[in-house]
Design goal:
With 145 residues, the protein is an alpha/beta fold. 38% of the residues lie in helices and 19% in strands. The protein has one domain: Flavodoxin domain (Rossmann fold). The protein has five helices and six strands; from the N terminus they run E-H-E-H-E-H-E-H-E-E-H. Strands 1, 2, 3, 4, 5 and 6 form a six-stranded parallel β-sheet that branches. The longest helix is centred in the N-terminal third of the chain and has 15 residues. The protein is globular.
């Protein structure tokens, strides 16, 4: 499994690390990438992707994930059969709530990747424990892997 992390203030990094710990505890090999490249993502085509990203600015992708997102759009490497999950953090007081995650989800769908289950949207206005919410979601999501 490969976890792609997009973070500005560290919340999604914390969520990603908690998820990685839990998955490793279940016997999965997990790699957490905070500056992922397309080549790294494509090097392991059987690895399930888990995108864990916050949203910044006016619905923007965090700076550390922008190069990957841009390169995926430019190179457009089709990924039929590639499975992924999505955890998107945001603040629902903004119109662009969790837009970075939504953009990644849309792009991966265009690249013919298959999302496993429903995406998790964590709202900072309603959730004081994003890690706990992610772990609860991960309990059921991991059964789809």
């Amino acid at each position: 499994m490969t976890i792609l992390v997009g973070s500005v203030y560290g919340n999604s990094s914390s969520v990603a690390e908690e998820c990685a710990e839990m998955l490793r505890g279940d016997g999965h090999q997990v790699e957490v990438l905070t500056l992922p490249t397309v080549d790294e993502v494509m090097a392991k085509p059987d690895s399930v992707l888990l995108v864990c990203t916050s949203t910044t600015g006016q619905g923007d992708i965090p700076d550390n994930l922008v190069p990957l997102f841009s390169e995926l759009k430019d190179r457009f490497p089709l990924m039929p059969g590639r499975r992924y999950g999505l955890i998107a953090l945001g603040d629902s007081s903004y119109e662009t709530f969790a837009d970075a995650g939504k953009q990644f989800d849309e792009l991966l769908q265009e690249l013919q990747a298959e999302r496993l289950g429903e995406a998790l949207f964590i709202d900072a206005c309603e959730t004081a424990d994003p890690e706990g919410e992610a772990i609860t979601w991960l309990q059921s999501w991991k059964t789809l892997i």
